[in-house]
Amino acid sequence: MTAPLDVLAIMAHPDDVELTCGGTLLATVALGRRVGIVDLTAGETGSRGTVDIRAAEAQHASRILGVSVRENLRLPDAHLMNTPESREAVIRAIRRHRPTIVITHARQGRHPDHIAAAQLVRDACFLSGLRNLVTDVPPFRPRKVLHAMSFREDNIDPSFVVDISGVFEQKLAAIRCYHSQFDGLTQAGEVYPNGEPLPDIIRHQAAHYGTMIRARYGEPFHTTETLRVSDITALDVSTF
Q: Comparing C-alpha atoms, which of 7, 8, 42, 23 is closest to residue 175?
């Protein structure tokens, strides 16, 4: 059995992690933490690239991100559903890697797979702790689920924003690995177009979230539980 992961990002398609929380994974790896990625589907119904091309691009991006492990569950792309079968596949991945923190999609979005993945991952994280479910693998439940909110402008404020200023260029380098998906495009995933090249839009969005924490670049996250503060004098981000 491999060593437990500190953070495991579980998202619908190859490249979703890089777009939404790649900077956070880079920053976490830089702290000496063990980080992994699980792609739920191979992106086989996508309009650009092939499964093999996207898999090779994902491995290239993984090397830039410095993650300890990346795997693909090969659930059905464009038909991702929160079924007992898909939950079992995710449960087994969670129990294999035993992460403290799980990152997944925002609970709203334009891609049906993203919405399905958010609830699928939440449910699997809970069910993974049940001893009498999937009994051939020891139970394990992550401590926290985070929903990545990059490029989302929903009526929900981020619970917190991670400073990715020092690793932002590496995040862009990881995204650029997906030549089949992004070369020449102005839109991707939840990134809506404004006429600029995609890397410029990503930079502007990261700068927008960075201003929330008085940093150059940031990535936002939402948690359904309230975050606890033990010492209010240690609170960061100046009011003025």
A: 23
105: which 2 tokens?
């999609």
In which order are the strands placed within the sheet that holds 7-11? 69-75, 35-41, 7-11, 101-104, 144-148, 218-222, 160-163
Place of tokens 């010492």: 231
* Integer CA distances (angstroms), 190 to 115, 187, 202, 238, 239, in order: 11, 8, 11, 30, 30
Give the Cα separation of 47 and 60 in Å (integer).
Answer: 21
What's the DSSP call for residue 110? S
CA 173 remoteness from chain centre:
16
In the chain, what are the domains? 7-234 (3.40.50.10320)
| CB-CB neighbours of 6 under 10 Å | 18
Whole-number Å distance between alpha carbons of 81 and 239: 43
Q: Which residues contact 137 (CB under 8 A, 6 or more apart)?
A: 91, 92, 95, 96
Q: 128 by DSSP, 3-state: which? A: coil
**What are the pLDDT tens digits along the chain (240 aa)?**
689 999 999 999 999 999 999 999 999 999 999 999 999 999 998 878 899 999 999 999 999 999 999 999 999 999 999 999 999 999 999 999 999 999 999 999 889 999 999 999 999 999 999 999 999 999 999 999 999 999 988 889 999 999 999 999 999 999 999 999 988 878 887 888 898 999 999 999 999 999 999 999 999 999 999 999 999 999 999 999
